[in-house]
Design goal:
By secondary structure, this protein is an alpha/beta fold. It is 31% helix and 19% strand. The chain contains 10 helices and 16 strands. The strands form 2 sheets. Strands 1-8-2-3-7-4-6-5-9-10-11 form an 11-stranded mixed beta sheet, sandwiched between helices. It has a 5-stranded parallel beta sheet with strand order 14-13-15-12-16, sandwiched between helices. Strand 2 and strand 3 form a beta hairpin. Helix 1 crosses helix 5. It is globular, with a radius of gyration of 21 Å. 47% of the residues are buried. The structure holds adenosine monophosphate and magnesium ion (MG). The site of magnesium ion has 3 residues, from loops.
Length: 357
């Protein structure tokens, strides 16, 4: 019998993020069409894509990520008309929001059509849909001829990947290809808005804020109370939001308060941990970086530059793992526009441990 050689190395293909190479995109599209998994850049984070309408592809995604199969996948589309294929009906709000924010970092939850297998939606009757604003992602959807189910391309529980290298670290050998389009622009996952509730409800904060959404909709947008509660009394509606997530391996504490008090407190805590023989990291802004005496001080960006903070957050959490630190102290980043989205991720990474000074 002829034996087939299986190449266990995942293929990393560099592609231009603005004008991706036709041949590479065709190859990647064919893999998706054949039921394989391909990781690709989007403007938010890297996604792990498979054919959204094929249950076996969803099963492969869950297996590769080690993701619980009750945690539904977002379906990525390239044209608004694709929404008609996956939605039972299109709520009028979806048209308004798509016009304002698609392609872009907004995921909408609508009632699902029969075309979407329940494996893709984790057994739910609703489906999450997004049109990504990235030439590589859009071209991959078009070339594959499929709609692409894609969660973030990390091992479940780890920080989401913002560079192709992060994907390789987590998933190499388990997926067919990684399209490397360089570091992503936004760095945190899409805003999720649920349009099946009485009032539009944000299930996951992101780059598009509740204020931006309600301005376009001309109605109130509420925030899922389950994502604000630090305890387990209210469950978040998005199944994925209940899991420990974005977490580095080390324990992490956020220190919040007035700048000088924060710097003093963190330095005091660092000294205590170092006296116990522990390697300690501090996550700080450019303004305060030089004032810390830790083994590793990681600069997340200027305090006033919230886009940079979002963009660097996951890479920095991954760096803490690589540096094998035992404890992480982070400043808090309550920035005006996307601070809620940033803090949602940071709080989860820290298991909601916040020290107020
Ligand atoms: P990720 O794909 O890793 O960015 O995670 C997708 C997030 O969307 C997870 O938190 C999911 O639980 C959530 N999600 C996907 N589909 C639905 C849905 N139909 N209803 C509620 N949340 C959803
Ligand atoms: Mg994820």
């Amino acid at each position: 019998m002829e034996s087939k050689v299986i190449d266990m190395e995942t293929l990393i293909k560099k592609v231009d993020s603005e004008h991706p190479d036709e041949r590479a995109m065709e190859e990647a599209g064919q893999l998706i069409a054949a039921g394989e998994l391909v990781a690709f850049p989007t403007e938010t984070v890297y996604g792990l894509g498979g054919d959204a309408l094929r249950p076996e592809a969803a099963a492969k995604i869950y297996a590769a990520k080690g993701r619980p199969s009750d945690n539904p996948l977002i379906v990525h589309i390239a044209d608004f008309s694709d929404l008609e294929r996956v939605a039972r009906e299109i709520p009028p709000q979806a048209r308004k929001l798509a016009e304002a924010f698609w392609p872009g970092p907004l995921t909408m939850i609508v009632w699902k059509s029969d075309a979407v297998p329940s494996a893709t939606t984790g057994g739910m009757d609703t489906v999450a849909v997004r049109m990504p604003n990235h030439p590589v992602a859009l071209e991959l959807i078009r070339k594959s001829g499929c709609l692409i189910a894609a969660p973030s391309a990390n091992t479940s529980g780890r920080p989401s990947p913002t560079e192709a290298q992060h994907v390789a670290e987590d998933l190499s050998g388990r997926i067919a290809m990684i399209l490397d389009g360089g570091p992503v622009g936004i760095g945190i996952e899409s805003t999720i808005i649920d349009l099946t509730e009485e009032k539009p409800m944000v299930l996951r904060p992101g780059y598009i804020t509740p204020k931006m959404l309600s301005e376009v909709l001309g109605e109130e947008v509420v925030i899922d109370p389950g994502i604000i509660a630090a305890d387990d009394t209210r469950k978040p509606k998005a199944p994925g939001m209940k899991y420990k997530h974005y977490a580095p391996k080390a324990d992490m504490v956020i220190v919040d308060g007035q700048e000088n008090a924060v710097v003093d407190k963190i330095n005091e805590l660092v000294r205590q941990k170092q006296a116990e023989g522990m390697k300690v990291a501090v996550i700080a802004t450019e303004e305060t970086t030089k004032r810390y005496d830790a083994d590793v001080v990681l600069c997340i960006g200027r305090r006033s530059d919230e886009d940079a903070i979002a963009q660097h957050l996951y890479r920095i959490l991954r760096e803490c793992d690589e540096l094998d630190v035992g404890e992480i102290y982070s400043e808090s980043f309550q920035t005006p526009r996307i601070g809620q989205a940033i803090m949602n991720r940071l709080l989860k990474a820290a298991g909601h441990t916040v020290l107020q000074v």
